[in-house]
Design a protein that fits this description.
Structural class: mainly alpha
CATH class of one domain: Mainly Alpha
Order of helices and strands: HHHHHHHHHHHH
CATH architecture of one domain: Orthogonal Bundle
Helix content: over 70%
CATH superfamily of one domain: ABC transporter involved in vitamin B12 uptake, BtuC
CATH topology of one domain: ABC transporter involved in vitamin B12 uptake, BtuC
Largest sheet: none
Number of helices: 12
Number of strands: 0
Length: 274
């Protein structure tokens, strides 16, 4: 019989995986892995400010991540510095600033390892509500902007010519990504959030026949990674957050194996014959 804390951890992890899968597909399609890393690093600054000002951590992380995303968009349009350089500057600056602020909070007992790598086993019922209700809102908005966002991903100029307002869809996507990071931070921590966004989507890309199918498959692979990682953590007494990421990486490796490649080729041949 599984303990209540383990069941809560499993439900929380699956909830985050269902959010991260579809969002991660756009990160993979747009090659925004470093951008996701930048937002996840800024989450530590959000935690620091939340502790300093005694406000809700999730809201603070969302606010800081959203501010960093908007700052990045503004700097890309006005600065002569390349995009990857700006991402590196913002990413490491936000992470370092967050650690410096934490160092001044001598009156607060801080679990730095939990912040960096997550503490999924400490998820409460309130956290579950935030994850599932917030995740439902994120997915609902993503579904609403799916068409213009995907069109802008394929061809930004064509989407603009067809009046789909790709710039607005891009902005909303950045805010959704900030919200997902705020929701997922307690599960995998600051340093592992991007892995949960990228690895399941990258694994799903090898099998999906269309964008919607890839989004669904990425969510399922993420959920399977959470379950495998948590049960592996329970079995071998390993850290839960990193175990989830290792499980996702193993699923990706299985998908990249020659056996899986042969299966995909056979399925494609069968589809062509029909």
């Amino acid at each position: 019989m599984l303990d209540d804390f383990f069941v809560r951890a499993l439900l929380a992890g699956i909830g985050v995986a269902l959010i991260a899968g579809p969002l991660g597909c756009f990160i993979v399609w747009r090659r925004l892995a470093y951008f996701g890393d930048t937002l996840s690093h800024s989450a530590l600054l959000g935690v620091s400010l939340a502790l300093l000002m005694d406000i809700n951590v999730t809201l603070a992380v969302f606010a800081v991540s959203a501010a960093v995303a908007l700052l990045m968009l503004g700097l890309q349009r006005r600065s002569a510095v390349s995009g990857d350089t700006l991402l590196g500057l913002l990413s490491h600056s936000a992470l370092a600033l967050g650690l410096v602020v934490l160092a001044f909070l001598t009156w607060v007992r801080i679990d730095l390892m939990g912040l960096l790598f997550g503490d999924i086993l400490a998820v409460s019922k309130i956290d579950l509500g935030v994850i599932w209700l917030g995740g439902a809102a994120v997915l609902a908005v993503l579904a609403a902007i799916w068409r213009p966002l995907f069109a802008a991903t394929v061809n930004h100029e064509l989407a603009l010519a067809e009046g789909m307002a790709p710039a607005r869809a891009d902005l909303v996507f950045m805010l959704l990504l900030a919200g997902a990071i705020a929701i997922a931070m307690k599960i995998t921590g600051v340093l592992l959030i991007t892995a949960l966004l990228i690895i399941p989507a990258a694994a799903a890309r090898r099998f999906a026949s269309g964008p919607e199918g890839m989004a669904v498959l990425a969510a399922l692979i993420g959920a399977a990674s959470v379950a495998a990682g948590l049960f592996g953590s329970l079995q071998w007494d390993t850290p839960s957050g990193p175990s989830i990421v290792v499980a996702a990486m193993m699923l990706f490796a299985v998908g990249a194996s020659p056996l899986a490649a042969g299966f995909r080729a056979a399925r494609k041949t069968g589809a062509q014959e029909r």
